[in-house]
Design goal:
236 residues, alpha/beta, Rossmann fold, seven-stranded mixed β-sheet, SAM-dependent_MTases_sf, Methyltransferase, methyltransferase, methyltransferase activity, Methyltranfer_dom
Length: 236
């Protein structure tokens, strides 16, 4: 991976001629994203993210932290929070903006650490990649929880993006897919394009069923305006 999203984040942090990022999926047209959005304040965040940050407590892990907007807010509140991302440039930007505990690290590589709150926000199920990987990730997340701990994770039901047929059903092309929320996600920045990334959106019922199958309670905390939601997973 060229880490183009991370480079855009670092360019913004260092004022190195930052430009908009172009994102595209296999079910949507290319869109421009202002990289400044990833540096948004608490007041600028969607209600789902605000709710998650309000519920965060104890020793907190922010997974896929990006520019560190969530970690920065929690740190300013005096919380004990660790930010991780697989993007070296993103973590460099986090450190430059003053985040104390930020590390280039894959979630699946964390060993011998426990947390009271694990945050997976901005479509936290995305890192699962494919539906088939859900159990692997949920089992690992479960192993990282302290007794009484919580996983706060958000996602969206993408069914609304597909066309209806004459009978009112949805026409969903499923070639090379096991589930309609499996997407291929591509980032372009300053004339370069990164390698395609597998990215998973889970509807709430599918997440809830997967959680129960893996020994986790799943509670719906809040729903957004675009078929999105925040869920809380806890140990049974």
């Amino acid at each position: 991976m060229k880490d183009l999203l991370g480079k855009a984040i670092l360019d913004f942090q260092t004022n190195n001629n930052p430009q908009n990022v172009i994102t595209e999926t296999d079910i949507s047209e290319a869109e421009e994203m202002d990289i400044a959005y990833l540096f948004r304040s608490y007041k600028e965040m969607p209600k789902i993210e605000q709710k998650a940050l309000n519920l965060a407590k104890g020793n907190i892990l922010d997974v896929g932290c990006g520019a560190g907007a969530h970690t920065y807010y929690l740190q300013e509140k005096g919380c004990d929070v660790k930010a991780i991302d697989i993007s070296p440039s993103s973590i460099e930007a986090c450190k430059l903006r003053g985040i104390k505990n930020a590390e280039v690290l894959n979630l699946l590589d964390i060993k011998d650490e426990k947390f009271d709150t694990i945050l997976l926000l901005m479509n936290g199920t995305g890192i699962f990649g494919r539906l088939v990987n859900t159990t692997k990730y949920l089992q690992h997340l479960k192993s990282l929880l302290n007794p009484g701990g919580q996983i706060l994770i958000d996602s969206s039901d993408l069914i609304y993006m597909f066309d209806e047929d004459e009978d009112g059903g949805k026409w969903i092309p499923m070639e090379n897919k096991d589930y309609y929320g499996e997407l291929t996600f591509t980032v372009a920045y300053k004339g370069e394009e990164d390698e395609p990334l597998e990215w998973l959106y889970l509807d709430y019922n599918t997440l809830q069923n997967a959680a129960h199958s893996n020994g986790l309670n799943c509670d719906l905390i809040i729903e957004g305006e675009n078929c999105d939601y925040l869920a809380k997973l806890t140990l049974i």
